User: Fold this.
Amino acid sequence: MESAILGSFISAMATVLGAAPIFFIRKLSEKWKDILVAFTAGIMVSASTFGLMPQAIKESGMIALTLGILIGILALDLIEKNIPHIDVENDSRVSSFDSKSLLVIIALFIHNIPEGLSTGFSYASENQGLGPMVAISIGAQNMPEGLILAVFLINSKVSKLKSFWIVFLTGLMEAVSAVIGYFTASSIENLIGYGLAFAAGAMLFIAYKELIPESHGHGYERPSTYSFIIGLLAMLYISHWFG
Assistant:
């Protein structure tokens, strides 16, 4: 339990680590943003395909895998349709903190819930290496997201320190949901396989719906593609290392 709480907290606080550069920079170049986002997509696809899905089959079988993935995808799809994510290209031009800025912050809180649940479900698995692997995967996704949110807030005339604390709170929501996911999966028999499949579906949705398209929209498709492959291979090595 201690390792699950610690791993979930570190993964969630990667959002804060990602926001740290705001004290030194104000603008993130499109090229490096695309490369970072594509690298993250590779990590998430690798973790879900080679880590979460095989373990979900082992825990609960193919039916659980299918249902869990579909539920994860549908859950993220509903969130996306009803609660907007940050549109970096457009929202970075916001000139003042308004109701739209507040909506984006609320959206980040809600978006972080399924990500936290994914980490918690993974730590509840009998595969002890799966939790750290998924925590690394989610944490890698959180770092550029934290930086993007922080830059957005600064461009909305929020102070750097206040922006940093808002990012911290969004990360904290993920840590709380991770603990909830861990205890829920641990206390309900046969739920772990469904939870792992849910996590896989959620991560694949994030990668294909958000990260990959976002990394290919500014003319840096080639370096982004290489970055995606490097991220996928990096997670394979991490998966092999954790066994």
Remarks:
- The radius of gyration is 17 Å.
